[in-house]
Design goal:
This protein is mainly alpha-helical. 61% of the residues lie in helices and 5% in strands. α6 runs antiparallel to α7, α17 runs antiparallel to α25 and α23 packs antiparallel against α24. The longest helix is centred in the last third of the chain and has 28 residues.
């Protein structure tokens, strides 16, 4: 704001003065705010009388920074001085900043605003200026690094770093790491740990700020353990927003485990819990009051990270804690917890082995699911793709599942004239993600490569026509990748469909002719397509899983993908263990 004011883009008729409130407090015994401002101007050759004239005429923009850095013991006295000064020189413009959660004592006449998280656009602007500035005269190199920074930041695996980058202080740290390595670290838990260390400790230490007061005696190490406990218990119960009383209850439960608090009476414990909550909210920004008396972690990644720290501590003390963690294997909100934990553990082999057992057990409740995985294993042996077996099985598994969902949606003659909800064929590009992690050379031959846009018809077509084209593409994929229970039957259906679609193909380049053909022949054509679908639906075709079975198979696939991601980032994992697990992926053992 001061810079914008100097450049004539904000408060153009005023002169900015920036004051760090903690510096003012240090001299509070000898200097009033007026004396402090006069001294600042005097050091730059401006007389005290001139300053008083500027104040009386409302020509100053007074920026008071770091209200949260003032000790609570001194805050009330300073509040009275600031309130008097603002009222005495009310024509001037004042801005007071503090961290979210610190009571502002409701300064009269002020409007409260809160900084939003930075957007990707703002992050990109900051990064561009950062890397160009460091590059000096070689600004093109800095611009190239900024571009690469933005590209990598949007990778799905860097989502937690993207969450951190929304805070400017942590963004500068992230840029510093990227400047030296030209990439983000593979083990993001370590990266996250260092970022939180900056947020919780180093920033205040570098500025000489002491936030704690005698009323909040909980040591930082205990605050970290408390956050671990709070993250674990709330994520386990799928609690993301909590009332203040709930948070204080969890804090009280933790305080009872600390010897200094075990003898405190219930009322005293509640008061202590309130003080600890306010200290964490004000000093670190890890917990945020989203609305009145409703709290959450600043972001989900923080909650997941502290949960991982809690399980890491438990596992080091009691190996049975791993079994508790594995129960969350299929929960999407716990994905990052596994990735953080496998990085934080000194010896991750036990967790990796337990995850593999947990993945295999997902199929046990339903024999048909195991049969499907066995069938995929058998089909992959005759696959035209010559890559690592696990990569081929992963590809065949997800492709067969997508095609089965597409068949289930299109082979329903009773809904022939109803629109398809998000045709599963749109998911086809995702078939390559996991296979490429298992085999970096995994590339589909051009003859088998699929371009979804080439096969998905425009939704503006009449609904039966659109459904028929989706079905035709699905059947062609099934035959091309040898993923049909009865290829001969499917081949016959493809030929029959092509015969029915032939008139449409002849008219496809002329929309007016197509619409005329549809108007003249739609009734008989719909009947023929409906009969064909119904005839196929009564015969033997692909698996046709129920919605629950489909969900279970997707859970199985996602769990395998999580296991592979953990294998990728785990440190000091025995090579033979890693190889054995990969060879058993997508293989069903009864």
């Amino acid at each position: 704001m001061a810079t914008q004011c100097i450049h004539g883009k904000f408060a153009v008729d005023q002169v900015p003065i920036y004051i760090e409130l903690r510096d003012l407090v240090q001299d509070a015994n000898t200097l009033s705010l007026l004396d402090y401002i006069c001294q600042e101007f005097s050091d730059r050759g401006v007389s005290g009388e001139t300053v008083k004239t500027l104040l009386q005429e409302g020509k100053l923009l007074i920026l008071l920074d770091g209200w949260d850095e003032i000790s609570p013991l001194r805050r009330f006295s300073l509040f009275n001085k600031l309130r008097w000064f603002c009222n005495r020189y009310a024509k001037n413009r004042y801005v007071i900043t503090c961290r979210t959660g610190v009571e502002l004592y409701r300064f009269g006449g002020f409007t409260e605003v809160e900084l939003a998280d930075w957007t990707l656009t703002q992050i990109s602007h900051f990064a561009r200026k950062y890397f160009v500035a460091l590059a000096g005269v070689n600004w093109e190199r800095g611009l190239a690094k900024a571009t690469e920074f933005g590209v990598q930041l949007e990778y799905p695996e860097n989502r937690t770093i993207q969450d951190m980058a929304k805070t400017p202080l942590l963004l500068s740290f992230i840029c510093h790491v990227f400047q030296s390595q030209a990439r983000f670290p593979r083990q993001q838990a370590r990266f996250y740990q260092e970022g939180l260390d900056i947020l919780l400790q180093k920033w205040d230490h570098s500025k000489g700020v002491e936030r704690d007061s005698p009323e909040q005696p909980l040591a930082l190490v205990n605050r970290l353990k408390l956050l671990e406990h709070l993250g674990s218990v709330t994520l386990t119960q799928q609690q993301y927003c909590l009332s203040q009383s709930q948070v204080e209850h969890y804090i009280g439960d933790y305080l009872r485990t600390i010897p200094d608090y075990q003898e405190v009476d219930p009322v005293g414990l509640q008061i202590q819990s309130q003080g600890v909550l306010k200290a964490i909210e004000c000093h670190h920004g890890v917990l945020v009051e989203r609305s009145r008396r409703v709290y959450s972690f600043a972001n989900l990644s923080l909650q997941q990270y502290f949960t991982a720290r809690e399980f890491t501590t438990k596992t080091n003390q009691n190996p049975d804690a791993i079994a508790e963690l594995v129960t969350h294997l299929t929960e999407q909100s716990w994905r990052e917890v596994f990735l953080f934990t496998v990085t934080l553990l000194r010896h991750p082999e036990q967790l990796i082995q337990a995850m593999k057992q947990g993945v295999d057990q997902l199929l046990i409740p339903d024999l048909r699911l195991g049969q499907f995985v066995n069938w995929i294993d058998h089909q992959s042996e005759s696959s035209p793709l010559s890559y690592k077996s696990a990569a081929v099985r992963a590809f065949d598994f997800v492709l067969a599942l997508i095609l089965d969902q597409a068949l289930a949606q299109t082979l329903d003659s009773y809904r022939l004239e109803q629109p398809l909800q998000a045709p599963p064929l749109q998911q086809l590009p995702s078939c390559l993600s996991l296979p490429q992690k298992l085999d970096v050379e995994f590339i589909l031959p051009e003859a088998l490569a699929f371009k979804v846009a080439d096969y998905l018809p425009p939704t503006s077509l009449p609904l039966p026509l659109y459904r028929s084209l989706i079905l035709n593409a699905t059947l062609n994929y099934s035959l091309a990748f040898n993923l049909a229970l009865n290829p001969e039957h499917l081949g016959q259906l493809v030929r029959s469909l092509n015969t029915l679609l032939h008139p449409m193909f002849e008219c496809q380049s002329n929309l007016e002719m197509l619409n005329q053909w549809w108007f003249n022949h739609r009734h008989s054509w719909i009947r023929r397509v409906g009969f064909l679908m119904g005839q196929h639906d009564q015969g033997e075709h692909d698996w046709q899983f129920s919605s629950n079975q489909t969900r279970s198979l997707w859970d199985y696939y996602d769990a395998n993908q999580l296991l592979v991601d953990c294998l990728t980032i785990a440190d000091d994992l025995d090579t033979q263990v890693q190889q054995n697990i990969q060879e058993e992926l997508f293989v069903y053992r009864e």
